[in-house]
């Protein structure tokens, strides 16, 4: 498989994983506020509203959940925090907005595992 096709396949797999995770959050009553939100600090895969709380979600797909978790580096965690702070600046309460950062993992069977308040926990 050529490099361009591999990139397109990975992009589609990532988009599908985000779709599966978004469906899981919707099933639990969260409303999607943004998908692939991009600020100066970087991109956040999914952003949900859960009442007054904003939930930032980093989605990773891999053969198994532990491989997916290992794909979120400390550098990426820092970038996610910066992007989340930037997004909160767009909210009426700013940095006083209740929030959390979750990690969502999708395995090769399409199963979803969500780790709430994930930054620093994986």
UniProtKB/TrEMBL annotation:
InterPro entries: Restrct_endonuc-II-like (IPR011335), tRNA_endonuc-like_dom_sf (IPR011856), UPF0102_YraN-like (IPR003509). This is UPF0102 protein PFRI_23190. Pfam families: UPF0102 (PF02021). Belongs to the UPF0102 family. GO terms for molecular function: nucleic acid binding. The lineage of its organism: Bacteria, Pseudomonadati, Pseudomonadota, Alphaproteobacteria, Rhodobacterales.
């Amino acid at each position: 498989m050529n490099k361009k096709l591999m990139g397109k396949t990975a992009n589609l797999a990532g988009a599908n994983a985000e779709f599966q995770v978004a469906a899981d959050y919707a099933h639990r009553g969260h409303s999607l506020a943004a998908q692939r939100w991009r600020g100066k600090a970087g991109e956040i895969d999914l952003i949900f509203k859960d009442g007054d709380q904003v939930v930032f979600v980093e989605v990773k797909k891999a053969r198994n959940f532990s491989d997916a978790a290992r794909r979120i580096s400390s550098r990426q965690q820092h970038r996610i925090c910066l992007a989340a702070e930037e997004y909160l600046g767009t909210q009426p309460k700013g940095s006083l907005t209740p929030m959390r950062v979750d990690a969502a993992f999708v395995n090769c069977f399409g199963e979803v595992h969500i780790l709430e308040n994930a930054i620093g926990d994986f």
